[in-house]
User: Fold this.
Amino acid sequence: MVDDQNGERELLMRILRGESYDVCGAADVPQALRHLHDDIDLVVTDVCLGKISGLDLLQKWKRRRPTTRFILVTGFGEVADAVKAIQAGADHYLTKPIKSTELLLTVAKAIDSLRRQVNRAELDNPVAMTLGFERIVGTGEAMVNLCARVRRAAVVDSTVLLTGESGTGKELFAAAIHYNSPRRHGPFVTVNMAAVPETLVESELFGHIRGAFTGASESRVGKFAAAHGGTLFIDEIGDFANGSQAKLLRVLESRKITPVGGNTEQEVDVRVVAATSRNLEQMVSDGEFRADLYFRLDVVHLHLPPLRERRDGIPLMIEHFLRELCAAIGRAPPTIEPELFEFLVNHDWPGNVRQLKNCLESMVVLADDDVLKFQDLPSSASISARKSHIQIPPNTPLEEIERTAIESALAEHDGNRTYAARALKISLRTLQRKLKEWDNVIGTGSVDADSTNRRCPERAE
Assistant:
């Protein structure tokens, strides 16, 4: 409740509190703006508040919290103010003197309208509630700290740059930012710049009018306009066409777009979250990315660590993905034999979370029974063995070649004899026999076989 007349403001607040509304008050626009992050559903404000009017408050507030409902209070007969209020985005207006019954009815309508919009948004977008932090699975200090930073970034309207290797879940984090922000009831629109041809970049982002270019048989709304009032996630921003980077920078600065072939600017209220798996700083140094655009995007920088740096979260991810995948096909989650589970946790996963999930899905679909085994690993993922690059001089004795191959395989698999044997396509018994014949000379070199066996009993002879 915003009114510079203390008596009137307190009276209206008492009336609303009598109907169990949670109400706070402000005497002017600066005081009101301090409540921007208090999850306010409705603002009732007088138009006349001094130098900064209620209309100014409406415009400032809506830029940051577009879903908040507004009721503007005008003097009796000031039709022009009422019209301006509606045009500026107010939901209702009241004229003084305000009657309590009229106030309560108008407030109830505004709140009911907000509730219906929220419910409709959830029905239209059933995944919205599962695209917040519920979808981000992981434990450990790195993930806890990252999620805390994401939560802090979500409540402000700053541009966010997400960096990290491919498959680390950048789109999930972008969605979490959106659905935990004041814009969560607005649209969440995504565009992958790596998939957009250079000639169509501007049309994809800013739209085009009919006849703007060959093949433009009808007008099209671009991603910025589609995301109005919400969030635009630009994935793989490092692949953005060089020739269009200046135009993107201008849109980010002015919040105005001009469709391709058009002459009329259109204001857009969009928060941008960008992501890349490339090194933008290096691209700036190499002249492949505009420095001013990079600095405009890099306001809040969040780096997503690769899966190999957060192995402590892999067991929870495996459980989550198996439960999710099996629920989709109507079966109970399978169990995993210990040998396979250990491999899944210790593998480096160059494709990160995406590769882990795809691997589990393949095994769930193709496994013969309800127990996932090592042989169920998909060969297309090339994870059953790491490639070893062994330089063998000419005329090397066969025994030395065998010894070099086994030592390399053991080193590649952190001393795990089972994995090394599978990588070499020999039996575990054969590997153990070779080691015994050589009196464990490998154990005195790069791999401590005895310490490995103490760490994992199944590796022992």
User: Anything to note?
Assistant: The first helix runs from residue 6 to 17.
